[in-house]
């Protein structure tokens, strides 16, 4: 029996190594590899590991997944018609699509052919033309799981001593089977985190173990913790990380000050949201004898305290970003650093990393300097206080703020003239009571004080990037650096946007990149204050690529910058911390390090940023549903904000809440979705609900667990 268990274990191990090998070989499926290249490629380097690689290769060859072209030389067997590797994305009905790099259309996989794949997994599929029609695929195997933990509700099956976890995520159609010894104290109906253990080939359900009980569905803490668990985001720090942070030398020592440019005597202040505690950046201003202005952009010197290779740095990298939920911040760094030591609080000396610019009255740069500094912030402003000084010209430091505002406005105008796009989206914010219940909704709108800070941060980010990447003559240095890149908009989406806004009488010129930017800015200006403003902004946003981090610089389309990095928020973004370290390395005369390691880091940071923004969006949805609970049965004016095959969404402009109207609930006709015109059309009557239309709705249901509102049309 023991022997059998051992051989099963060995078999599983070889299967796992086989998956690693296929994943590595599929990156370049037409290449022939020798076994040493394969072993190196999956980082199996010692003799014992290499022996396992050989065994796994024999197994793959026996299963016809690879071919041996020569002694110990292998190639992926593409004869199994065509095998491709991609990421699987499930629809709510159980069918799926696999996104393969380099192939424009996603490959359809029928629900009966998805095997044991789950949402987001990297899978190996075999493709074929079903009944001679469109290309379809079948999952051969899962090469890499996207997740092994899931959030759901535990359902205990009485008298059977086992249970199931029904996963919250709509794209996961499989319940997890939980044996008695893996329930770990969970009670029927509780929300839990389940860890996937295995999935037997002959079983309909994966087997899991409950690793955390979150609480009762619908309760505030349960739902917020569910959102964090859903995206694998932590909500507290391990004790050893806290201990590491507490040990840091927090003193401003004379020896360290000596190594820095001392700017403590120069007027310096911060401008931040009223509820902020982590002040990343400060501005200093002084008039120079030649009549020019010296503006210092001072950024918390996190790299002085958080050193590579420490537990603290490992944890910061793992998180990669702070997460801003409606009722709390989940910081990247422990509070002692994020809100105390590194935060540029007023009336305290602080270590900073600075970009100092000499500007003339036309905001043209005459000189620039980058390096480590020590500053002393004289005043903390909220955006509202700074705005008051801009509007009235009264109050302490009004003159200085007005000077910076004037310079910022010139910088902004120049940026927009050169093709930057002015997206100024309104953000939904909530007034919360002591129990974190939403008692009011308001919209955060960017004003001059926000733009003032934004322009100087953009300037610093751009100039740091240029300093590292270009010689004085403007040629490339070839130095490894971390960029914030943003690709050009998707041409097909732009064309669709042009056609669609054309029906509202708006014109767009897509002749070239510059014309596109001009058209977008003109369009965004023209829709301001109109009924269709939100919808047109949303559609324009959807034409855009997502900005990501990379060592390969392609420039930033939205800002119209050839060089751009993130340098200004190292308390809450890991790439900024990396940018600080690299900049200092070059200031010290260091050679350019290998880019591959940094590219890997940036991929991780981009992925974490996506998770954080999804979690933030979910927390807003949850709060909106919670806010609307007390309005069930009431009637509101709304705007059609989205359409789909099964229904359409309506947004209530006064509070930003969005609800779904299902097609099956429209009783006066049989309706279908016209994707091209973003409309829902009645077959008999021709009655139409189009994106941007004003409609009257009644709130029918507020489901906190699903974070969903159901509306019904009121005639």
Description:
- The protein has 715 residues and is α+β, with helices and mostly antiparallel strands.
- The strands form nine sheets. It has a seven-stranded mixed β-sheet with strand order 14-21-20-17-16-15-22.
- A hairpin with a 4-residue loop joins strand 30 (671-674) and strand 31.
- It is globular and about 85 Å long.
- The chain starts with a helix and ends with a strand.
- The relative contact order is 0.07.
Features:
single chain; 715 residues; alpha+beta; 5-stranded antiparallel sheet; 17 helices; 34 strands; globular
Structural topology:
Layout: H1 2-26, E1 33-34, H2 35-41, H3 47-62, E2 66-70, E3 73-76, E4 82-90, E5 96-99, E6 107-109, E7 122-129, E8 135-144, E9 149-157, E10 162-167, E11 176-179, E12 191-198, E13 207-215, H4 220-230, H5 239-246, H6 254-258, E14 261-262, E15 268-272, E16 281-287, E17 293-300, H7 302-305, H8 311-319, E18 323-324, E19 329-330, H9 335-341, E20 349-359, E21 365-376, E22 379-382, H10 383-392, H11 398-417, E23 427-432, E24 438-444, H12 448-469, E25 483-485, H13 491-502, H14 513-526, H15 533-543, E26 548-550, H16 574-587, H17 595-628, E27 635-644, E28 647-651, E29 658-662, E30 671-674, E31 679-682, E32 688-690, E33 694-703, E34 708-713
Parallel strand pairs: 14-21, 15-22
Antiparallel strand pairs: 1-3, 2-3, 4-5, 4-7, 5-6, 7-8, 9-10, 9-12, 10-11, 12-13, 15-16, 16-17, 17-20, 18-19, 20-21, 23-24, 25-26, 27-28, 27-33, 28-29, 30-31, 31-32, 33-34
